[in-house]
Amino acid sequence: MTSRNASPGSVPFDRVAGIYDATRGLPPETSARFGELIAHEARIGSSGRLLEIGVGTGRVARAVAPHVGSVVGVDLSRPMLEQLRRQRGALPVHVARADATRLPLPDASVDAVLVVRVFHLIPAWRRALDEVARVLRPGAALVHAESGVPVLDAVSRRASRGSGFRVARAGAGERDRSLDVAGWPLDAEPASFSFQRSLVPAAMLRLIGERAFAWTFALSNAELETALGAARQAMREHFASLDDPVELKGVCRVERRRPPDA
Ligand SMILES: C[S@@+](CC[C@H](N)C(=O)[O-])C[C@H]1O[C@@H](n2cnc3c(N)ncnc32)[C@H](O)[C@@H]1O
Predict the structure, then answer these.
(1) Most ligand 1 atoms within 8 A of CB, residue of 118, 207, 213 to mutate
(2) Domains of the chain
(3) Which atom of ligand 1 is found nearest the CA of 115?
């Protein structure tokens, strides 16, 4: 598959594959707990087959895999999947390069589907949801999970708003009511836990300048400068110093949702 026949406007992560885990990774014990919680909410037992769309480097899939039978991961980006292959060891994580809007799987063939930070990158996210509904076995659920550091998300939002950010409008909102609106009701109360993460704010500014985050991919140089200025300003409001490490609170959240009319 080439990026030409990917669903139009999707945002593959080829350019950041080499730094993805270092910039988005969770502390090891948090990652392990996140994987366990996702497997618990998927309710597929130790022999079930879980599909993750937009699996990337397997940052999350590798944490879930020890608790389920197997994980199948699909992603548009060959370099991201290469990273996953390199790190999966003996874990039962299989990959396919494919578009979430055209899954290479038969109807009713998986016991749960996992999505983490992907729908906002796919303009045809509703088509991807239709594909999820098609491949789920009857009674099976979509697990929509998220890990983030609210203060950093707030800085990114401030920075991206004034800069001509186009990716945010590519697909569904990450924490809005898109899945409710698309008719995928919650199947259980969302589960969550918080964690601590240490960060030097100036290091995040450098990453924004290096276009490490999806919302910077499509910016012109001038827009990137504007975004950096806004990020610096927002950080000065949040942190006493940009050069000293700060302890931040992060949240992992997991929703279990069922297909429309299921
Ligand atoms: C923000 S990363 C999330 C990766 C992983 N879920 C995680 O949480 O670490 C988004 C991933 O979705 C992939 N992606 C974007 N559009 C896609 C599409 N239409 N089909 C499949 N994967 C897609 C990107 O290549 C990237 O690897």
Answers:
(1) 118
(2) 14-147+170-194+250-257 (3.40.50.150)
(3) 6
Cα(56) to centroid of ligand 1, in Å?
A: 5
Q: How far is CA 13 from CA 3, 86, 92, 115, in A?
A: 11, 17, 23, 16
Pocket test for ligand 1, best of 21, 121, 253 (most atoms within 8 A of CB): 121
Q: Which one, of 41, 38, 45, lies nearest residue 62 by Cα?
A: 38
The tens digit of pLDDT for each residue in 75-102 reads 999 999 999 999 999 999 999 999 999 9
Does residue 70 carry a pLDDT above 70? yes
For atom 13 of ligand 1, which residue has the closest CA?
54
Q: Which residue from 143, 193, 174 is spatially nearest to 32, judged by alpha carbons?
A: 193
Q: Given ligand 1 and candidates 76, 81, 103, which is best to mutate, with the most ligand atoms within 8 Å of its CB?
A: 76
Condensed to tens digits (0 to 9), the pLDDT of residues 172-212 reads 665 567 888 889 999 999 999 999 999 999 999 999 999 99
What is the residue with the minimal CA distance to atom 4 of ligand 1?
56
Cα 4 to Cα 7, 10, 98, 152, 214, distances in angstroms: 8, 11, 12, 33, 19
Task: Determine the average pLDDT of the residues in 43-70.
Answer: 97
Place of tokens 């055209």: 102
The gap from C-alpha 129 to its chain's centroid, in whole angstroms, comes to 15
Quote the pTM value: 0.93
Residues 204-251 pLDDT 10s = 999 999 999 988 988 889 989 999 999 999 999 999 999 999 999 999
